[in-house]
Amino acid sequence: MKSPPRANNMSKTPISTLYTRFVRGIALPLGDWLIGQRMIARLRFLEKAQWWDREQLIAHRDQLLSETIKIAYHEVPLYRELMDEAGVLPQNIRSPGDLSKLPIVTKDMLRNGYPQRTTRETAQKTYEECTSGSTGSPFCVREDPETTGWYRASFMLALEWAGWQIGEPHFQTGMTLDRKRWRWVKDKLLRCHYVSAYDLTDVALDRHLAAIEKKRIRLIGGYPGSIYHLAQRAAELGWNQPIRSAVTWGDNLYDHYRVAIEQAFHTQVFDTYGCAEGIQVAAQCEQGNYHVHNLDVIVEYLDGEDRPVPPGERGHLILTRLHPGPMPLIRYRVGDTGVSAGQRVCDCGRGFEMMESVEGRDTDIIVTPAGNRLIVHFFTGLIEHFREVKSFQVVQREPDSILLRIAPAADYTPEIGEQIVRQLKEKGADCTIQVELVDNIPLTSGGKRRFVISELPHR
Ligand SMILES: [Zn+2]
Questions:
Q1: By C-alpha distance, which of 293, 22, 286 is closest to 160?
Q2: How far is the CA of 161 from the centre of ligand 1 (A)?
Q3: Which residues on adjacent β-strands are paired with residue 393?
Q4: How many angstroms does the Cα of residue 151 sit away from the middle of ligand 1?
Q5: pLDDT of residue 9
Q6: What percent of the chain is modeled with pLDDT above 90?
Q7: Three-state DSSP class for 436?
Q8: Distance 50 CA to ligand 1 centre (A)
Q9: Is 446 helix (H, G, I), strand (E, B) or coil?
Q10: Ligand 1 center to residue 42 CA distance, Å?
């Protein structure tokens, strides 16, 4: 998953301009004030804390853990019950080593208890973030501006590791295609050229490359699958505008993606790993090593029987977010796997512990007759809005048709299926779509659900 360090990377670090100083010093703090979050203040704190020595980091982290556990115990019924059942008091949890005294919390537990038993009042207004997560069934978490400010700050820190200055022109692929109103303002202000991660036809890719060239964009970010196809197209065309760095998020970065992107754009890929439940978990520094955001989250690596696995071995990731927010996440089984790097330290000098790799987010690609490439987010981004669908899976066996397996919820009707098919076609799935209702979607031997399975030979 790693790429070798590039000696010339630091020399590529941009010098801040008057404009980037304005964005960071005035525009974003103003935005924070309007939204009621404290992203920039948190970012400034993290910029210093990343260079603290281990003892200072550990002391601060353990203090955050104690406070989070205390609040969860006193204010959130689910955690109160779990801790009472386990005979554990808040003062018994002082460091990550104590977490094994607590049971693991699954998505189902949080889904069943939501919102009465899983949330708490904060002094801020709250909002729901619902996703299909990594299981295919809708899953909601509650956040407030404090939560958002935290994970956005850590994401911005990761962008800085990749040599980005906030406010520099950049190209981004994403799923939020409605760029009106405040998103339009944000794109203009941050100089973001935002495009659909759904539309990956050659025509669209050519248009994107032309825009990158015209606007002299040096930074690229988005879903690995979409950046990979952009890179492949660039290589085909012999397109070679210099790109300073490419940052990936939201999906699994396969090794062949990384190699193709780095070669096509003569750049370094910086992968990040966060979860939609409101935690920025890890990101790569300029040495190519993943660092855990130690002041945001505690990561445990466990085997199938919930015992810790040694560094270097793949484990199921269990996350404990280090601030409670409206919906604390303590020993949360996120559904991904990864490998710890143990006590290894990185040459970059940052004190954040290292992660060998992030794995297990399964992705496959559907190629349509017209040559459009549909990544997993194409389907999850659309179908997750249908509460009538419990889970789904897309299988391609023929070049011109796909099978959409739906495990329906109680209020599902055939009209819902027709509506989904129509919308998929409108968004670029130019093939026959056959719907099959099933009781449930089988998991892989590794216990993961695959949204998209292409049984065609890889192109
Ligand atoms: Zn490092």
A1: 286
A2: 9
A3: 405
A4: 19
A5: 43
A6: 69
A7: strand
A8: 10
A9: coil
A10: 20
Ligand 1: distance of its center to the CA of 353 in Å? Answer: 9
Helix (H, G, I), strand (E, B) or coil at 45: helix
Ligand 1 centroid from CA 290, angstroms? 7
| 178 Cβ neighbours under 8 A, 6+ residues apart | none
Residues 190-218: tens digit of each pLDDT: 999 999 887 788 999 999 999 999 999 99
| 316 alpha carbon – ligand 1 mean position (Å) | 23
Cα 51 to ligand 1 centre (Å) = 11
Write out the residue limits of the CATH 3.40.50.12780 domain(s) in the chain: 10-54+146-359
Whether pLDDT at 257 is above 50 = yes
Mean pLDDT of 21-49: 95
pLDDT exceeds 60 at position 333: yes
Q: 348 C-alpha to center of ligand 1: Å?
A: 4
**Separation of CA 245 and ligand 1 centre (Å):** 16
Are 441 and 362 within 8 A, CB to CB?
A: no
| Mean of per-residue pLDDT scores for the chain | 89
**Is the pLDDT at 235 greater than 60, yes or no?**
yes
- Report pLDDT for 1: 42
Cα angle for residues 199, 180, 365 (degrees, 5° grid): 20
Question: Distance between CA 33 and CA 200 in Å, rounded?
Answer: 37
Do residues 236 and 371 lie in contact, with contact meaning Cβ atoms separated by under 8 Å? no
Residues carrying CATH 3.30.300.30, the chain: 366-454
Q: Report CA(286)–ligand 1 centroid distance (Å).
A: 6
Residue 106 DSSP label: P
pLDDT of residue 19: 93
Domain 10-54+146-359 class, CATH top level: alpha beta
Residue matched to tokens 């992030």: 358
Give 90 Cα–ligand 1 centroid separation in angstroms. Answer: 33
Lowest mean pLDDT among 171-185, 202-216, 295-309, 392-406: 171-185
CA–centroid distance, 338 to ligand 1, in Å, is 17
| Residue in the structure block whose two tokens are 């404009």 | 19
**175 contacts 183 by C-beta, under 8 angstroms:** no
**Cis check: omega of the bond before 115, within 30 degrees of 0:** yes
Using the mean position of ligand 1's atoms as its centre, give its distance from the Cα of residue 439 in Å.
46
Architecture of domain 366-454: 2-Layer Sandwich (3.30)
Tally the C-alpha atoms within 13 A of residue 428's C-alpha that lie toward its C-beta: 20
Taking ligand 1, which is a single-atom ion, which protein residues have CB atoms under 5 Å away?
Answer: 285, 287, 289, 346, 348
Distance 246 CA to ligand 1 centre (A): 17
191: its two tokens: 């100089």
Ligand 1: distance of its center to the CA of 131 in Å?
31
